[in-house]
Automatic annotation (TrEMBL):
Region of interest: Disordered: 70-95, 699-720
Natural source organism: Musa acuminata subsp. malaccensis
GO MF term (any one): zinc ion binding
InterPro entries according to UniProt: MULE_transposase_dom (IPR018289), Transposase_MuDR (IPR004332), Znf_PMZ (IPR006564), Znf_SWIM (IPR007527)
Protein name: (wild Malaysian banana) hypothetical protein
Record has Coiled coil as a keyword: no
Top-level division of the source organism's lineage: Eukaryota
Keyword Zinc: yes
Ranges of residues in domain SWIM-type: 606-648
Entry keyword set: Metal-binding, Zinc, Zinc-finger
Amino acid sequence: MANHDLVLGQNPDLVLGQNHDLVIGQGHGLGLGQRHGLGLGHAHDHDLGLGQAHDHELGLGHPHDSRLVLGQQHHPHDHGRDHSNELALGQNNDTDEDALDAQNHELGISDNHELTLAETHGLGVDQNMVHLSIDQAQELGLQSAHDISQGHMLVPQVLQNRRLIVNPDHQLTISQEFSDVKSCRRAIRDAAIACRFEIQTVKSDKTRFTAKCAAEGCPWRIHAAKLPGVPTFTIRTIHEMHTCSGINHLGHQQASVQWVANSVEERLRENPHCKPKEILEEIHRMHGITLSYKQAWRGKERIMAAVRGSFEEGYRLLPQYCDQVKRTNPGSIATIYGNPEDNCFRRLFISFYASIYGFVNACRPLIGLDRTLLKSKYLGTLLLATGFDGDGALFPLAFGVVDEESDDNWIWFLSELHTLLEANTENMPRLTILSDRQKGIIDGVDFNFPTAFHGFCMRHLSELFRKEFNNDALVKLLWEAAHALTVIEFEAKILEIEETSQEAAFWIRRIPPRLWATAYFEGTRYGHLTANVVESLNNWILEASGLPIIQMMECIRRQLMTWFNERREASLQWTSILVPSAERRVSDAIECARGYQVGRANEAEFEVVSPHEGTNIVDIRNRCCLCRGWQLYGLPCAHGVAALLSCRQNVHRYTESCFTVATYRKTYSQTIHPIPDKSLWKEMSDANQEGDNKIEIVINPPKSLRPPGRPRKKRVRAEDRGRVKRVVHCSRCNQTGHFRTTCAAPI
């Protein structure tokens, strides 16, 4: 300050009332020697000269600028001084010169306005001294004489007026213009949050907006109004002074869900996977306020609804989306079914032509069925039918979305799949279908594919087995029995299970081995024992299942489009005759066949003797071997390779066509085309109709809303199911089954 005044607020004087005296008891003097300084910054700049031979002058900067006056009756040396810069502490307080102490005592005023007395200062205050009242709202409590003589006497800062200091980005000035009333309210709200005070709306309509500070008695006020003839809003008046101290809590009344959404909109558009916890941390770091988790979650959901569309809009636009699928990908199937009573969503079936063509012309006649629950706002189930390409990778064929998983919906989905294959093939192939064989799937397969081989997915079967017995050794033997190629090998593994547990052997024998064991299975699975489609697609299918229905289907379509392009380009780099996985299998068989002895019976039949496996009979004309490896996998086994090499035949010519690179390229020869943005759908639909009176179908969301609670985001792995849970222990009652926080036992 210019004159080093002790300014507390706008008023340089600290008035402590008319009747609040600072009583200094008898024998308790304020001893300040001749050379004892009052330190405000540097010790050598300011001196306090109070003694017998000096006037009682408080030097704050210059020696004659300010005084410490202890009463109305001043020392004779004090007359003529300007009392405007004095600190008045009562009316009749005199300085007793006889009480001056010769010892070294220092009186220090720190930066935070504390009047500090050193431990040995002789300042004594009466036990019954009166509290000093400032505006009847702040009290300055002085401790007992003993405590004050050894501690600190605090003089709090008195704040009478507070000017609105706003970040330049939130500056509010008279004549400042806004495009509409929403922009005006948003700017005022942002300024209030930045300056840590809350506002209360006085008036708000289409032509004016008035707000004031929410603190009682604070004069801060702002008024904005609409200019005549234009939609622009202008700040007309603003009172920028605050007498309040601002908010004293971590939250903020104006930090609404919409404000949270506006604050993190840019970040969410760049990273839609940003978690609510990260949003809370960023808001606290940027604005210094703490919000609830639910507020951050709702703010994120509001932005994501604006970016990806709402769940209700997704169902409403489904008919238009199906039209776009068929328009951009000719030959595709996209049908939607609603409840005839209220048009609520029931079923959706989509299969892209590129998938249909690749499966019918190049894939193995093997289909896996699986499903996953939707994680969206409305309940539902995603049904999947996938094939397998020549290299063993999943080849999604068709997708169905139903309002619930039921036997009727599975029968409907398989009937749609039958119609799809029947319309695109001259002769329906004899399929091999893998699933968990629940009743709806069994009925649907029996009705729509009566000639198909329907087997158990070993993943589902092993899960049930593990839940029943929870023995890793038994589960391992079960898988070995399923992989056994011959009946003798299969029965040997079952006997091992029986030796370990007769109950487990009885349990597994109740299930016909023709439904799950390779040795008894009548169809051709090409080594595939599982149809765990969802677990194989776990990286993205579960994330897609939490989106609105159109966004979910678009996520699936984009993934398929990417897969088709990547696999097509990768196959162009292959120089071998067979796909990599088949090429490795044949190479291993050739290596094993080097030690076999081959005897030829005729042009097609051979006898192959191996040192460890004994004798096997091979028929190269029918492509079969007594070990059954050639028939089951579609590739020559080691015995077949030995027979082919003995008669100088090309091994690659005796493999199934689906394993060749040429067929693999045909699998992904077609393209899944992109679909334009939904803003263009109506315009394109109107252009395609060309005046035809087409009734627009309206689909409402299903009636089944998701129950409260956060849905599971991560699928439970099959190997984790059935695992023994950790036993919890209560440290309060020493019982198991609960924690200390939930213990209800009496003490």
